[in-house]
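quick one, 233 residues, struct below
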Amino acid sequence: LGNSPVSEKYLTKENLSEKQDQVPLDLYFCLECTHVQLLAVVEPDFLWSDFTFKTANNPALVAHFKDIAQRILNFNPIDKNDLIIDIGSNDGTLLRCFKDVGYDNVLGVDPADEIANEAAQNGIPTINAYMDKETADKIFKEHGKASVITANNVYAHVDDLAGMTNAIKTVMSKDGIFIFEVSYLLDVVEKMLIGTIFHEHLCYHSVKAMSSFLQTQDMELIHVERGPEQGGS
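---
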């Protein structure tokens, strides 16, 4: 798709005449594992430190997260005191859905400073960090292992998928489950969802590629569902 300004980084009225930096926006397909991704990676802190989107401001997303929480509990019943971790927890909306039905041992992880702090102030314990080895070690030391770990629209944003997945394994209990939602590559292609291709979205996932990747991490993909979120998930 050529070079493009970084998404969500808007010019102010005072600097409209300034030239914006251009970053390549080209998709690459791996012939070996079939994964699709961008190769030009924008510094994560530049993308996420002042991220302002709040889940709670989107009623459809709030309803979706309530449904996700209930489906997770139906699929994998856990004790009320078991730890639940949400990666990319934003303002804590998903974890609030668990708390509302009696699961109070929740923990969010999010790199956006303002939103993570706001979530913590609103009663959702949140670590303001990326989900990496350092964060995983901290969680394990202070909270133990989790029975449920979630990550909604997070795996599209990660350059080091293996590193994040290893961090998740560090804090996941032996019988725990990891539930993640990603934009579906087939829908991106069939529906020509060009608007979903931008610098925050480094990876474009398919079931085949994701299943193969998880096997390399000693994890197994046990269940897949399709949904309408993001044009197709």
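The chain has eight helices and ten strands.
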